[in-house]
Specification:
The structure is a homotetramer.
Chain A: H1 2-15, H2 20-29, E1 34-35, H3 58-72, E2 77-82, H4 90-99, E3 103-109, H5 127-146, E4 151-154, E5 159-160, H6 168-185, E6 191-195, E7 205-206, H7 211-221, E8 225-230, H8 240-250, E9 253-258, H9 275-290, H10 295-299, E10 302-305, H11 314-333, H12 337-345, H13 349-361, H14 365-374, H15 381-386, H16 390-394
Parallel strand pairs in A: 1-2, 2-3, 4-6, 6-8, 8-9, 9-10
Antiparallel strand pairs in A: 5-7
C-alpha cells in the first residue's frame, strides 16, 4: 500500500513538472543541528519540572543527540554551550562524538548567568565586567578551535528594565568594542553569528533588539560576521520570511535558531503553532539556494534548533522538531518556481498565492518515507525511536543537570 | 520655599474649582496592599540574581512590609502566598503583624509549583491532581479564617503548550467544579477574586485567559466571586481602563494587581513604563467612587501590588510602586468631572481630552508632600527610608528564601 | 489517475479508522454564507482601486454570489447590508435570489456611515442619534421579515479616539438600552448576533471591544442573542479557538465572520495567512458538533465570510475563501477523536499534538474532488469558474457601486 | 498669581542645578513642521466624515498653517504633498507662504494613489510603472528646488497582501535602483529621508518594513540619504527611543513624523495616548544634542507632524500636537544629565529611573507660558486661537478638498 501511495504521489509531482529525483537529493543533503541544552531540563520563571533520565553531562547529551541523528539521519552536529558543556578534555568530547557519528557544531558563550552580569555583560558600564565577558568569548574561540567548530553563536542577553537605567549609546559603544575584539580573534575560516531579540530577559530594552542592529554590527565588523535569526525573537506581526529574504540578498544571514511561539519567545517545538510561517521561510531559503546571486549565502546557513521543552520528553520533542523542519523544507522544494515567477511578473495575485499555498497543502509524508528508506532509515523515525527502548533506559540516569 | 510651593499649587486648584480638602481626605483614605513575595528574590527563566539581605521567612517579610507602611503610610496590609508563607502558628503571624501595625490581606494559593501540576492543577485531567488542588484552596480558606483575611486571590496558572494537548471544554468543566467547591466553602463575608492571564506559564492556551472568562465564572458562582485585574495580563493594545469601567458597571471587579510591562508580563515597578495608562485606570476608579451606582463596588476593590523585581533592591522598589500608585490616584482626583461630563455630552473631543490630560500634567508632588506632613510622615518617603539604615541592617540576614 | 489517487487516499483513512462516508456526508451538508458587499470594490483609507465589472446593485451582487454557489455548491445564502442593498421591493430581491438558487441570509444594519454617527450611533450621547440608530436596526428587522431572514448580524462600530472623549459607562448604558429595543422587536425564531472588535474604526476604545463584552450583553438579553466571532477582530496572540470552545460550551456562539489577517483587521482571503489557526478553530467546531451538550449550538452557527478584497478579483477571491473554509472543515473531520481523547486524558502531550497536526497535514484535495463529483460539481471549482467566461462578461457592467 | 507660579517654579529648578535660561533658549529655537494634508478631511477605510470649512487648495492650507505658527510660534515651515499640492506656479506658493511668515518644508511624493500603483510603485514588476514612479520622484526634486526645500520625504507604500504575491528580492532590487536614481538627482545640499512602516496599506509585507531596511538603503546610497522615523510605524512593544538613539549614533536619522496610536498606525494627536514614550524619545534627542559626536545629526533632524484627524477640528488638533511636542521637549531639557550619567555608571537602577521620571513629572506649563510671553505670544495658544474667530471664518469656505 505504501508503495502505491508513493507511486501515485510521485506521478502527480512529475505531472506538475517537478524533478522528484532532484527534490530527493536536496532533502538528503539537508542538515539540522541540535543543541546540547535541548536535551536537559528547562522551564519557566515559575517552575522547572524536573524529569527523570535527563543527561548529567555533555557525554550523555551527545548520547541523546546521537539518537536523534540515528533516527532522522539529518542531525550530525551538536551545538554546545559554555560553561554548561565545559570540560577539561575537549579531545575526549570530540572523540566521543565521533564514535556516535557526530561532530560539534556551533559554540555558544553564556553571557547571562554570572552574578556579575546582573546589569549586563559586554554592555555593562563596569569595564571589569566587560573584560570578563570578552575573555569568556575569547575562551569560546579557543574551545571552537579544539572541537573543530567554525561557528561562534552569539546571544547578547544584555538590556535594561527601566527608562533611564542605561545609556543606550554608551552601551552600544561598549558592545561594538567587545564584538571587535571577538571578531579579531576569529580564524579566517570562522564565523560569528550575531543573534537579536526584542525582549527578555531584559524587559525595557535589549541592546541587540532586532535584525537591523545585528546587521549593522555584522556589516561594520566584516565578512566573518553575520546575522543569526531566531524565529521566536520578533514582535507579533513581523514578517520573518521577508527579513530572511532581505538578509539573504545582503549576504548577511549566517544561521537560524528554529522554534515556535504563540506570543513571546516560547521556544516550543518548531512548526507546532504556525507551520505555514515555517514553510514560507523555507520558501525564501529554497528560492535563494537556486539563485546564483544568493546561493553561497544560502548554502552556508547553519540550521540550528533552539528550544526549551518545559513539559515534553526531550528526545521525542527534538525528533519532532527536526521532522517538522524537514517537512517544511520538502514542501518548499515542491513550489513550481517557473510558474510562480510568471505569476509574480504578471501581478496575478491569486495565481501566485495559489502556487505557494498548493505546495504547502501537499502531503509530503510519502516522499519523506521514501527518502528515509533510500537513506537506510526507518520511514517513521518517531515510532522507531519510541519502540527502541532508549527512553526507558535513560531513566537509569536519575535526575539530570538543569540550566 | 516648599510652603510657598504648596500654597501656589493649592490656590491654582481652588481657582479651577477643585475641593482640595476633599482631595486630601481621599488620598489619606487610600490604601495599597503589598505582597509578601515582593520582598524576596525573583528573576527570569534565565537567571535569578540573588541579593543579600532577603527575608528568610514570613516574619522578615513582614518586617520589610512594615518599612513600606512606615514611610508611605498607606500599606497596612500584606498579601500572603501559601505555601511560601505557610507556618504552624498563624496566631503568631497575626500578632507579629499587629505589632508592626500590619494586618494580613489576601491569601494566595499556589497552584503552579508542585510537580503534580505539570499538566495543570484544577484543570488537570487527572482527578487526583484536581483533588489535591481543591484541597489546597480549601486549606487557604482555613488559613484566611485564622489570619482574619476576607479575600482569596486566585491565580489559576493552568493551560497547555500545544494545539490538541488539552480538551478546552473538558478542562473548563473541571475548573468550574473546582471553583464551585471553593466558593461554597467561603464564609459569607469572604470573597474570591478570579485572576486571568493571556499567556505564561502556559504558552498555547491559558484556561482563564481574559477578563471575559473570569467574569463568566464569577457571575455563575455568585456575589462572593469577582474578577481580579492584573494590569500586565493583557495583550498589547488592550484598553485596560475600558475593561475596568465595564467590570465596575457590572459590579464584578474585586481587586487589582498593579505592576507594569513593556511587552509581556514583565512585573516591573507600577507606572514605570506607561504612567498615563495607570492614571487613566484611576480616572475610571475615581469616577466610579463618585457614582452611586458603582460606589460600593469601587470602594470594595482590593488594591494590591504584584511585582517581581529582578534587579532592583526590593523595599525601595516597593516604595516606588506605592508612590506611583498614589500619584496616579491623586491626579485622577484632580479631573474636573463636571466640565468633563459637559464636554463628553457635547461630543467636544478636544475639550474632553484636554480636561483629562491636564489633570495628568499637574505635578502633584507638592500636594502629596503636604498630605504626608498632615499624616505625620516624612514628605519624601524614599529618601527617609534610604537614610534610615534599614537597607544596611537587612544585609545581616545573608541570603534569603527565593520562590 | 485521479481515481487511483482517491482510492489510495480513502484506503489510508479507513485504515486509520476514519468513517469516510460520514466525513463525506458532513462535507456535503456544510454551508458558508457569502456577503453581498464582498463582490464590490473596497480598499484601504489610502486608496480604493476601482475594478471594472463590479456589481451596480443588489441584483448583480446576487448574480456574482450565484456563481460562487454554482461552482462550490455550498454557498446558498447571501448576507445583505442595509442601506447598501436597500431596495423598494424585497419580494423582487427574494424572487431574483430564488431563481439563482439563493436565499437571503443575515441582514446587517450599517451604523457607521451616516454623518450623524461621527461620535457614535447607539452609544452617542445625543439621544436623537441613538434614536436614529435604533430605528435603523428596527427597519432591518422589518427587512429580515420580508426576505425571510432569521439573523440580524450586528456590528457596532462605535468607540472613541482619545482618553476622556467618552464616558465608558454612560455609553455602555446607552448601548444596552438600544440592544434591548432591538431584542424585543425580534420574532421568536430570529436571532441577533453581536460582533466585537478590538479597534478600528475607533482607535482608543471600541464600545464592544472583545468577546467578553458581546457575551455579557447577549447573556443579559436572553436566548435570542448570541456572540458573532470575526476571526480578524482579536489582538495578536489571542487564542481564537479557545474563545470559540468557551462560547460553544456556554451555548453563546451564533455566527462566524471568516477572513484572515497578518497584523490588524486586514480582511484577507480566509486561511491565506494562517491556515493552521483556521483548522484549529474547526477542530473545536467539529468536536462540539459531536458532543450532545454542544451539538445544537454548533449546528446553529451561521458560517459567514466577511472580507474586503483590495486588489483581488472579487469572485475568484470569494471562491478561494470558500474552498479554504471547506478544506479546514474537511481536515478537522479527519482528527481521530477517540485517540485524541485518550492522549489528552493521559496527558500525553506529544501524542495529542501529533494526532491533531497529522489531520492537518493530510492532503484533502482528493477527498474534496470526490465529494464535488458526487455533488455533480466540477472537481476544480476555481478552474471551472475561470474558464466559464463569466469574468469577461462581467466587464460589460463598467464600474460598480463601491461602499 | 501666574507670576508667582513661574517664580516658584524657576527657583525650584535652579535649586536642582538646572540652567533655566539655557532651557528657555533651547525651547525658543525648537521648531516643528506641520503638514499641508493635516488641515484637510481624512478618515478611515469605513468613512471620511467631511467637515465644513476645510481648505480647498494649497493656499488655504497655508492660511491654516499660518494660524498654528501665529499662536505657537514654532511652526514656520509646512510640508507639501505632490500631487495634492501641485500647482502651476510655485513662485506664487512661495510668495504666499512668505507673506504668512511661512516657508515650504519637506516635499512628499505620492506613490500610492495612482491606479497604476495597485501592485506597487517603485517595486512593481512592471518597468513602465516603476518609470512613472521614478519620474514622479524626480518631478518632486524639481518642485523642491522651486520652493527652496532641501528635503524629500519618502514614504514607499509598496508591499503585498499575500504569501507568494511578490518576489521579495526582485522587488528589493527594483527599489534600490529607483532610490539610486532619486539620490543621484538630489543637489548636494538636499537630503532624502526614507520612511519605513510595518504594515498598511499592504497587509502581508511592506517593502520597507522597518528601520533596518531604511538604514540599509540609506547607508548604501550615501550621506544625502537618512532614515525618517514615524512613531506610529512600529510593532507593539517596540522601543522607539532605543531605535532613535541607535540611529543618532550612526548619524543616520534625518527626520521625524510625530503622531500617536493605541494599536496600529492611528495617526492621532501626538502624545495623546502615551506621553511618556514621547518624552523618552526627546530624552534621547536632547542627550544627542549635547554630545559632540551626535550633535550635528541631532540638530539637523526635521521634526514634522504627520497626523490624520478623523473627528477633530483640524487647526486645534494641530495646535495641540505642536504643544504636546513642545512639552515633551521642554521636560527632556529638565533631566539632570550629570546625575543621570553618574547613576547609570554606578548601575543605580532606582536612582537613574527616578531622575528621568522626575523630569517628566514636572509640570512645565509655567515655563512654557513664560517662554511664550518672552516670544511675544499669548501664553495659552489654544485659548487664543479659539477666541480669535478664525474657526468661524473658515466655515465660509464650505466643504474642502479631501485626499
Amino acid at each position: 500500500m505504501a508503495g502505491i501511495e508513493y507511486k501515485v504521489w510521485e506521478e502527480k509531482q512529475i505531472e506538475r513538472g517537478i524533478d522528484v529525483e532532484k527534490v530527493k537529493k536536496s532533502i538528503k543533503e539537508f542538515k539540522v543541528e541540535t543543541p546540547s541544552w535541548g536535551y536537559g531540563d528547562s522551564g519557566t520563571r515559575f517552575k522547572v519540572f524536573k524529569q527523570i533520565g535527563m543527561p548529567r553531562n555533555i557525554f550523555e547529551k551527545l548520547d541523546d543527540a546521537a539518537q536523534v541523528h540515528k533516527y532522522t539521519g539529518i542531525c550530525p552536529t551538536v551545538a554546545i554551550h559554555i560553561p554548561w558543556d565545559k570540560t577539561d578534555d575537549y579531545e575526549k568530547v570530540k572523540d566521543y562524538a565521533a564514535n556516535l557519528n557526530l561532530k560539534i557544531g556551533a559554540v555558544n558563550p553564556n553571557l547571562f548567568q554570572e552574578d556579575e552580569y546582573k546589569f549586563g555583560s559586554v554592555c555593562n558600564s563596569d569595564p571589569k565586567v566587560r573584560k570578563k565577558a570578552v575573555e569568556h568569548m575569547l575562551e569560546c574561540v579557543e574551545i571552537a578551535r579544539k572541537v573543530d567548530s567554525k561557528i561562534l553563536s552569539l546571544w547578547i542577553a544584555d538590556g535594561t528594565n527601566y527608562p533611564g537605567q542605561g545609556d543606550f549609546r554608551a552601551r552600544k559603544h561598549y558592545l561594538e568594542e567587545s564584538l571587535k575584539e571577538l571578531y579579531d580573534a576569529l580564524d579566517d575560516d570562522m564565523r560569528m553569528l550575531i543573534e537579536y531579540k526584542t525582549f527578555e530577559p531584559a524587559f525595557y530594552h535589549t541592546d541587540i533588539a532586532d535584525w537591523g542592529m545585528s546587521y549593522t554590527f555584522a556589516t561594520k565588523l566584516g565578512e566573518k560576521a553575520q546575522v543569526l535569526v531566531d524565529i521566536g525573537h520578533h514582535f507579533q506581526g513581523a514578517n520573518v520570511e521577508h527579513i530572511v529574504a532581505f538578509l539573504l540578498d545582503e549576504g548577511k544571514i549566517g544561521g537560524f535558531h528554529f522554534n515556535n511561539r504563540k506570543y513571546a519567545d516560547d521556544d516550543l517545538i518548531v512548526g507546532s503553532i504556525n507551520p505555514y510561517e515555517l514553510f514560507l521561510i523555507f520558501n525564501e531559503l529554497v528560492s535563494a539556494e537556486i539563485d546564483p546571486s544568493t546561493r553561497n549565502t544560502a548554502k552556508n546557513i547553519a540550521y540550528m534548533i533552539d528550544q526549551s521543552h518545559c513539559i515534553e520528553p526531550k528526545v521525542p520533542a527534538m525528533i519532532q522538531s527536526v521532522l517538522n523542519v524537514q517537512t517544511a523544507y520538502a514542501k518548499a522544494l515542491l513550489v513550481d518556481r517557473d510558474e510562480l515567477k510568471k505569476a509574480q511578473e504578471n501581478n496575478d495575485v491569486m495565481r501566485a498565492e495559489s502556487i505557494v499555498r498548493c505546495a504547502f497543502e501537499t502531503d509530503v509524508r510519502p516522499l519523506l518515507e521514501k527518502v528515509r528508506e533510500e537513506m537506510g532509515l526507518n520511514p517513521d523515525p518517531m515510532k522507531a525511536y519510541l519502540e527502541s527502548g532508549y527512553e526507558e533506559k535513560k531513566l537509569e540516569r536519575g535526575y539530570g543537570q538543569g540550566w
